Amino acid sequence: MEDWKNFLPKNESELLSQWDQLEKARTDLLALSVTRRSADASVEATCDGRGELSGLRFLNDKHRTMSSKQLASSVLEAVTEARRQVHGQVAERMGDLVGLGVMPSWDELGDLDWNDFLKPMREEGFDFDGLADRSKQKGTGGHA
What we know:
Layout: H1 4-10, H2 12-31, E1 33-37, E2 43-48, E3 53-58, H3 68-98, H4 106-110, H5 114-123, H6 128-137
Antiparallel strand pairs: 1-2, 2-3
Helix pairs in contact: 2-3, 2-6
């Protein structure tokens, strides 16, 4: 394979397009919200695009007559299902984007040290900030 110094300039427009697709996916996923109910319809849980709990509702006052164990089970069921749906949508969106199928989980990606990953390119002088600036100048969105 040719080295990255020759590869990147020849493929900058494709790289910018891919960058834009990643940014769109990031924006879409940050706006993602999934709400699911427990099977007994006593609890409704909402999770954001990171799978974090962002809302919890107790429906129809049914929780008032439930034991603490039943209520805890219903809460856990609703939250788990909402998170499962979020993770499935994230995996599908990212898999479609890169064409590789299911991507690693957020937790796995969170362990990746991007600075370390990009260090060899930075040391050889690749200008990531310049790439983002060129993306913005071409009206392709750039990054946040």
